[in-house]
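<context>
A single protein, sequence plus fold
<sample>
Here is the protein in question:
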Amino acid sequence: IDDSPNGHIRDSRFRRLPGIANQPLALVKRASGMRFEYNDVADMAWSFLFSDDVIVADNRFQVTPGELAVIPYHVCFFYGRNDQVLRNEFSGGWNGTTLFPQLTNEVDDAVVLKDTVDARVEHNFMEDYWDAGIEWVGNLDSGHIASNVIVNAGIAAIDTAGVTAADTVVGIAASGGTPFVRAALGRAQTIGASTV
């Protein structure tokens, strides 16, 4: 979708074509003011580029177990301002195996913010992500991330580091215990590593 300001995508179902293991992606460019609401999305990623004042709200993002696909995220904003991700339900499908070698349709991140200004990510439920529920890359200027529930995320930090039962993993969180740190420590314990 190119150059479509103030558009609406509502009450729709989106699925990738079966049997295609590439990264299924919907690309939205220069679509400021777009509203993406009340949709049911499975097995694909949505990227918003150079789009300001976009609202992604009240959607359901999921994967189909057993499908072969590599999806890097469910929603990503690149170089936008005042974009909002509100009250969505995200399920990444991580089931306890390492992500990329098996290509078992597990999503890396729920939401990625890349060089955004004044982004809001609030009141979302995110579960079963191999890496992070919310990840920012580059500059995040005046972002507001609050009141999200993130369950079973942060596994990549342990798997990509090659942690074994012979290691000790120390978790540090500025707030005392973020979901990412708790999940990473849980993964380390599952492997048999000592944790602090």
In short: The longest strand covers residues 107-117. The mean pLDDT is 85.
